[in-house]
Q: What sequence folds into this?
């Protein structure tokens, strides 16, 4: 099969067959367009087409000031909105060399872990939906709504929070924050067995995910996968461990690594990560230090000319923010290294030779957010 | 035959029952009856492109539960849907797809534009080169819901407003034959 890079459309021979999935398809979780070449029911080739939700966020950053462009990043990976904001703020703080107050660091870390919990819960519910089980969706949203309520009280917004600002957080936590988080942890611990009973132990779910979508360790490294996708293939890549930022250097938690590399391993990694997130929250919630929640910085931010890079661990993997400053109040160039873009590259090695029905399970286990790929 | 008038809260018309309890006679107008049926079983198309889609999922979940108003039969195919909730940014590349989806839906069809992006372009209005500034340039919109993203309650409010709009419309337009 001859194929050049410019060849937009896959070529098919007589007994093969081209099928388009998307851009409007419920299993792609957004507007991804996949072109498949099928040999019978097996996937012989696969090509993703991007750009259906390209909003030009990187270019927009160049025409906005440093404080203004942070809010755009919560629209990239909207399920890790707070962690995206945090990455930008950390990069700007690095350039200005300001010291963030301890209280702000702990609040940011708590919010980031709550975001991760909410994101994984939504993933769990939608994985169930993709496999044809509707009830996990309702169970997942029960705890997720509690977290969103906590966000709303403190930040004023449920999804796109914009709570981080350079130097700390926008305002102090709500007086009920601590008690509500404790109640959430208590309820989630009491309910987590339902998650396992509904989906993890389900024989239909297991036979659809075990041994499906195998990603070897070498492929995961060469495709620069990160997050739960890479950790399920046996790579230790948690930025929270490798390069601790904010308050991650003072908490004890385990980096979850599995070696099977199939869809079920990725499922297990995310399920265990939820428990680890809870562990982090429990350690921090009782000792939020007193003091300022924001360092005093100038109204107009002008970082000295130079290049600044910061990476963080979002719910889907490693997010890198690269800022080039020319000394003015607007960045010269901003580049985001988003986790979903490189995880999408793993879709092809995972699904070659698989049945077309398994593609839905593989997509669900990758947990892709399309606006994060296209930016 | 003896008949008794029965009261039903939301039924548009009068229902008379006979002694055995069967509703034998209904007096109503075709428009009112058809609109009542249409507005209470709107089937939305699953069409979420970005952030707003998550709040749409919240509206479907147990806390907000849009099935109370008859929206729960979300369809994946435009051929089976009455209503398209455009949840998320529409870019220039996506615009022809949205138009095609709209054209594929059977009449009568309705459009809800959810979120600032679909009203004016929202956060991407002035600086982005690839976002459509308002989907009303592509498809006719019935209800706009502001917010970035709108709360699930706002979505429900918008959908109830759409129901009210349907109740006021003419269900059947009989065209005069041309001479
Ligand atoms: S209105 Fe806001 S939340 Fe909705 S799609 Fe646009 S940017 Fe996302």
A:
């Amino acid at each position: 099969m001859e194929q050049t890079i410019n060849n937009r459309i896959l070529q098919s021979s007589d007994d093969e067959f081209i099928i388009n999935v998307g851009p409007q398809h419920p299993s792609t979780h957004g507007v991804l367009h996949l072109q498949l070449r099928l040999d019978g029911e097996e996937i012989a080739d696969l090509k993703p087409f991007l750009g259906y939700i390209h909003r030009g966020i990187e270019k927009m950053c160049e025409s906005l000031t440093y404080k203004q462009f942070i809010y755009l990043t919560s629209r990239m990976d909207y399920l890790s909105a707070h962690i995206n904001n945090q990455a930008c703020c950390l990069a700007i703080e690095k350039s200005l060399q300001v010291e963030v107050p301890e209280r702000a660091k702990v609040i940011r870390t708590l919010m980031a872990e709550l975001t991760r919990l909410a994101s994984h819960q939504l993933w769990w519910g939608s994985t169930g939906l993709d496999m044809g089980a509707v009830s996990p969706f309702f169970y997942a949203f029960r705890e997720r709504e509690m977290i969103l309520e906590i966000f709303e009280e403190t930040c004023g917004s449920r999804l796109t929070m914009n709570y981080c600002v350079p130097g700390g957080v926008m305002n102090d936590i709500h007086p009920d924050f601590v008690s509500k988080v404790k109640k959430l942890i208590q309820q989630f611990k009491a309910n987590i067995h339902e998650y396992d009973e509904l989906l993890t132990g389900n024989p239909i779910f297991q036979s659809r995910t075990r041994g499906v979508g195998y990603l070897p360790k070498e492929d995961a490294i060469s495709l620069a996968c990160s997050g739960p996708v890479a950790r399920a293939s046996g790579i230790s890549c948690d930025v929270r461990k490798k390069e601790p930022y904010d308050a991650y250097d003072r908490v004890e938690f385990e980096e979850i690594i599995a070696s099977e590399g199939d869809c079920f391993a990725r499922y297990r990694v995310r399920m265990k990560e939820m428990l680890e997130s809870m562990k982090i929250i429990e350690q921090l919630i009782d000792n939020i230090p007193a003091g300022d929640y924001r360092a005093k910085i100038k109204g107009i931010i002008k970082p000295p000319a130079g290049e600044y890079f910061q990476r963080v661990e979002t719910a889907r993997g490693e997010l890198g923010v690269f800022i080039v400053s020319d000394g003015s109040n607007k960045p010269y160039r901003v580049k985001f290294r988003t986790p979903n873009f490189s995880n999408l590259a793993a879709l092809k090695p995972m699904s070659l030779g698989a049945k077309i029905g398994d593609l839905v399970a593989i997509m669900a286990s990758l947990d892709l957010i399309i606006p994060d790929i296209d930016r | 035959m003896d008949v008794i008038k029965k009261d039903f809260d939301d039924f548009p018309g009068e229902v008379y029952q006979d002694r055995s309890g069967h509703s034998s006679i209904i007096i109503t107008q075709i428009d009112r009856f058809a609109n009542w049926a249409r507005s209470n079983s709107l089937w939305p198309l699953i069409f979420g492109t970005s952030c707003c889609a998550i709040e749409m999922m919240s509206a479907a979940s147990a806390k907000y539960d849009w099935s109370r108003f008859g929206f729960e039969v979300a369809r994946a195919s435009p051929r089976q849907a009455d209503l398209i909730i455009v949840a998320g940014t529409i870019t220039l590349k996506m615009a022809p797809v949205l138009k095609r989806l709209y054209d594929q839906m059977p009449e009568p069809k309705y459009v809800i534009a959810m979120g600032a992006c679909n009203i004016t372009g929202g956060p991407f209005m002035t600086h982005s080169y690839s976002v459509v500034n308002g989907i009303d340039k592509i498809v006719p919109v019935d209800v706009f819901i502001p917010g970035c993203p709108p709360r699930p309650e706002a979505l429900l409010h918008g959908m109830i407003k759409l129901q009210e709009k349907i109740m006021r419309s003419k269900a059947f337009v009989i065209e005069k034959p041309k001479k």
Remarks:
- Residues 227 and 316 of chain A are 5 Å apart (CA to CA).
- DSSP finds 15 helices and eight strands in chain A.
- The interface with chain B takes residues 23-26, 30-31, 51-57, 59-60, 63-64, 71-72, 75, 78-79, 122, 126, 137-138, 141-142, 144-145, 148, 158-160, 370-371 of chain A (CB under 8 Å).
